[in-house]
Amino acid sequence: MLVLGIESSCDETAAALVNDKKQILSSAVLTQMEHKNFGGVVPEIAARSHLEHIDEILEAAFHQAGCQPQDIDAVAAAAGPGLIGGVTVGVMAGKALALALNKPFIAVNHLEGHALTPRLTSDVSYPYLLLLTSGGHCQILIVKGVGEFERLGTTIDDAAGEAFDKVAKMLGLGYPGGPIIEKMAALGDEDRFVLPRPLYNSPDCNLSFSGLKTAVRKIIESYADDGLIEHAVLRKRDCADICAGFQKAVTDCLLHKLRKAVAIFRQRCPQGRYMVVAGGVAANIYLREHLQQLADTENLIFAAPPIKFCTDNGVMIAWAGIERAQKDLFNDLDFKPRPRWPLDENAPKAAGAGGVKA
Ligand code: KG4
Ligand code: ZN
Questions:
Q1: CB under 8 Å to 58, separation ≥6 — which residues?
Q2: Which residues contact 269 (CB under 8 A, 6 or more apart)?
Q3: Nearest CA residue ID for atom 10, ligand 1
Q4: How far, in Å, is the centroid of ligand 2 from the Cα of 114?
Q5: Number of neighbours of residue 1 by Cβ within 10 angstroms
Q6: Which ligand 1 atom is the nearest neighbour of the CA of 311?
Q7: What is the DSSP code string of 201-263?
Q8: Residue 180: in which H helix or E strand, if any?
Q9: Strand order through the sheet with 128-133
Q10: How close is the Cα of 67 to the center of ligand 1, in Å?
């Protein structure tokens, strides 16, 4: 089975061809550079850019794979959650292809794309414990099967990736923040600045990064004579130390709540063997190393997608499409793109599970 995956929910226009033998035949990704000076993604600009580039990205995916549109068995498109203008572009392109080729259409939840990718790139079996951490979401889930998620915790404010982006913006480092902060952090002293660990003492698996971001802001402001962040003068050394301290604080918070989640996972799924990370922030090597250590301590097998498949791409959508197609989970062509689309919307609510960001 060969499936085309289309992704356009944030600032990557992407398409890929993947088959059910776990072969990635192609992956075309265009990362929009138009947002660089804004410190975040501008939805209008993103939607326009998706529209301008979707055709060439689709062509590139078929060209790289050396196949023709008629060769595919289904079209999968990320249909949310995300910026609605962009999502609509990808979904419309997917539906048009499905209609023209007379192939089934699959509306994929972008988060399910991230969540299932480790099953494509490693040998991960259900059920598994998942840290899903991206620019828009930060959740800890048990993945029991396609469309079967139990959310154990979620951020109650910012996502971890969003916090990386906002801290980078405050430091004038550009967008996206994660990779730049990771680079700077490697040069810094992670213990120089004392930063808070929000919700550390709450008994649940929820997370919070907004207070951490504010604490970083106060440190940067202390480098300005008039206390205004835009007048702050930091040496490269100070900037690196802030980045290192921030990255450590985020990692500590994630590990602490994941440790709690492991205990719940063990109780609910005694047969579960895997601890998995996915989403853009999973590209962070410092975080991956610490997660590997936690998994080793807990006697779980750790899996993370290769770095290039952590941030948004078409492969993850194609793979989720394959898993859905294998269960005959297809969608009608009148499926409406969904700006909000919680992964666990069909699951019974677990006691103590948080539910703020969807
Ligand atoms: O999954 P993704 O590509 O898009 C969303 O679904 O949001 O994730 C993008 C996020 C951005 O916030 C970006 O700063 C973050 O992932 N990110 C990283 C790294 N690479 C990307 N965060 C920390 N360290 C990285 N190396
Ligand atoms: Zn994503």
A1: 4, 6, 15, 28, 93, 97
A2: 127, 142, 144
A3: 135
A4: 7
A5: 13
A6: 3
A7: T-SSS-B--HHHHHHHHHHHHTTSTTS-GGG----HHHHHHHHHHHHHHHHHHHHHHHHHHHH
A8: helix 177-185
A9: 148-154, 138-145, 128-133, 274-278, 301-303
A10: 31
List the structure tokens of 234: 């930091």
- Give dist(CA 305, CA 311) in Å, integer: 10
Tell me if the pTM is above 0.85.
yes
Residues contacting 173, CB < 8 A, separation 6+: 180, 181, 184, 239
CA 216 from chain centre, in angstroms, equals 23
In a 3-state reduction of DSSP, which class is residue 74? strand
Phi, psi angles (nearest 5°) of residue 141: -135, 155
Does 177 sit in the ligand 1 pocket, CB within 6 Å?
A: yes
Q: DSSP labels for 324-335?
A: HHHTT--B-TTP
* DSSP letter (8 states) at residue 33: -
At 59, is the secondary structure helix, strand, or coil?
Answer: helix
Q: Which of 108, 175, 281 maximizes ligand 1 atoms within 8 Å of its Cβ, making it the mutation to test the pocket?
A: 281
Cα of 269 vs centre of ligand 2, distance in Å, is 27
238 alpha carbon to ligand 2 midpoint, in Å?
31
Give the span between the Cα atoms of 122 and 42, in whole angstroms: 34
CA-to-CA dists, residue 351 to 34, 76, 152, 205, angstroms: 43, 34, 9, 11
Structure tokens at 120: 């494509």
Which pLDDT tens digits describe the chain residue by residue (358 residues)?
A: 999 999 999 999 999 999 999 999 999 999 999 988 887 899 999 999 999 999 999 999 999 999 999 999 999 999 999 999 999 999 999 999 999 999 999 999 999 999 999 999 999 999 999 999 999 999 999 999 999 999 999 999 999 999 999 999 999 999 999 999 999 999 999 999 999 999 999 999 999 999 999 999 999 999 999 999 999 999 999 999 999 999 999 999 999 999 999 999 999 999 999 999 999 999 999 999 999 999 999 999 999 999 999 999 999 999 999 999 999 999 999 999 999 999 988 776 554 444 344 4
